[in-house]
Amino acid sequence: xxxxxxxxxxxxxxxxxxxxxxxxxxxxIINLENDEVEWLEEFDAQDQxxxxxxxxxxxxxxxxxxxxxxxxxxxx
Length: 76
Fold this sequence. Notes:
It is built from one helix and four strands. It is α+β, with helices and mostly antiparallel strands. The chain has a four-stranded antiparallel sheet with strand order 1-2-3-4, covered by helices on one side. The longest helix has 30 residues. The radius of gyration is 13 Å and the shape is globular.
């Protein structure tokens, strides 16, 4: 199965949370309510350096994805 790069997530146990799931390496879930990130990978020292340089860009992409998706619902 081919997955999109980002997926929106929702859960009634967290009514104010808006989750964006990043399905490519490094996989993570971000809660846009508080910008908390849960990494779904384990990182070694080499990965850690790469992660530090990519994290800001990936979070920006996740936020842009959410804004795009919400915009599409509002335009329906």
